[in-house]
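Bit of a strange request maybe. I'm writing a small parser for structure token strings and I need a real example to test against, not something I typed by hand. Could someone generate the tokens for this chain?
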Amino acid sequence: MNATVLISGGTGLVGTRLTQLLQEKGYTVTHLSRSVSGDEKVKTYQWNIEKKEIDPEALIGVDYIIHLAGAGIADKRWTDRRKELILKSRTESTKLLQDSIAKLGNHTIKAFVSASAVGYYGIDTGGAWMNEDSPSGDGFAAEVTRHWEAAVDEINQLNLRVVKIRIGIVLSEKGGALVKIMQPIKLGVGAPLGRGGQYMSWVHLDDLCRLFMFTLEQNGMQGVYNGVAPNPATNHELTKKTADVLNKPLFLPNVPAFVLKLLLGEMAQVVTGGNRVSSKKTEEAGFEFKHTELRPALGDLLR
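Reply from user aminoacidic:
Good idea to test on real output. This should exercise your parser:
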């Protein structure tokens, strides 16, 4: 495979692993970043989203773009300034890529694959199955995702194949939600959050990266797909099974929602709410998840 893949946000949790797997498969991988990295295996081009600047060489000879850039939604408290950054880091980076591709005129880009999020479906949709045709819900995360996807849809004007992957809770031992769940469990103070029955649509990091790679190679894939494993778990199940794999007890009561609201502010809705998201359309496109059950997936990551 001699194709070149340009990844924005390539040094994050997903981008780092995706880069590795693409290179193992023979792809040439380049990154778009605010700063040039010291990684000799990956050529990095600079961009500045605020100034609407991008290295003109970045898009030359590129076959595919995977757009992962965006400020972490659960990294910091949601102040008005943070909310603005979360939104603009997604929409304005997408617009910058669209404008830069349009300026090229003749280009080699075959497809534009963007991250999105299951937050699209709303704060808490209970036990109802959400699929790609379900309406967008309420709350800040849903609002951001709507604007984000609308920005990505504008790229259809460039006659490119455009794919959006609505990502669930990415499980990795190197970062993200699982590390935050593990920390209190290891200290003996782990507990389910809120009522515990809220669904957490999870995906093993490697399966998510394989899905991004799969979309590059499947010319029939277009539009939106859920990037979640087939069997979502409740917050209680995720906490309990993580504790089991770590061989740690769970004896504390659930952390009440009001305490989480005090600690995290509005951002608490990320953990007190949840969505039961279907992977059916993704599987019908021909993608096979290697990690379909939570306990073995956790075992694979934490063994």
